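Researcher: Next entry in the queue.
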Amino acid sequence: MFELHQISKAYPLGGDLIEVLHGVSMEIKPGKLVAIVGPSGSGKSTLLNLIGTLDTPDDGRLLFDGRDIGKLSPSARASFRADNLGFIFQFFNLLPGLTARQNVELAAAIGHRDRHYSRQRAGELLELVGLGDKVDAPARNLSGGQMQRVAIARALVNEPRLILADEPTGNLDQRNAAGVLQLLREQASGDRAVAMVTHDRELAERFADEIVTLVDGRIEEMAAGGQNGKRGFRLVSNLASLIGR
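Model: Structure for this entry, 245 residues:
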């Protein structure tokens, strides 16, 4: 699905040019959850931003289904994101005055989806992430774990091929963190994949199919995830069939 070939990225700082990524090459395959781990400052978030076309590489190639997307114009990148990517952020980025359903519907509106379909799908997704009784609750009244589940439903509403999650459990306790990662684990099926940046290697080993370790902007290790994988966790009822439409 997604291929990175010798990706490099640097940023100006004062009068210097700070190299953040050095010739990174990796693949994200359909049906896989890929966890990107490493110490602070290793380039994890920069790598995720490049995969999400929120930034562009200085050198190398980004391929999505064989199409080079690394040098698209800003407007073409925006269209690509709307059609193919879903984002989940550490700080949720919900609008606190909107309800859970409205936050999900807003993402659908940005993706130019039919309003009636979007409202129905938002309700279905919130039900299937365990928030059927919170669809009309303002986001400000939800717990951290509940807000992150709304964020997952929002990321899924436009049926993206690739879900990108930046520290999705960073503001959650262990119980809620495990629940959120279980939901992400379940999204990596069929032709959909998940790429996730996380500081928690233990959770990555429990839930990810593949673990990419970054150190000083270079891939130090690429390894298989833990033995639990997909078979170790119960699927939320009917979730796989819904997101696979």
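Model: The helical segments are 44-51, 74-84, 100-110, 115-128, 144-156, 174-187, 201-207, 239-243.
Researcher: Noted, moving on.
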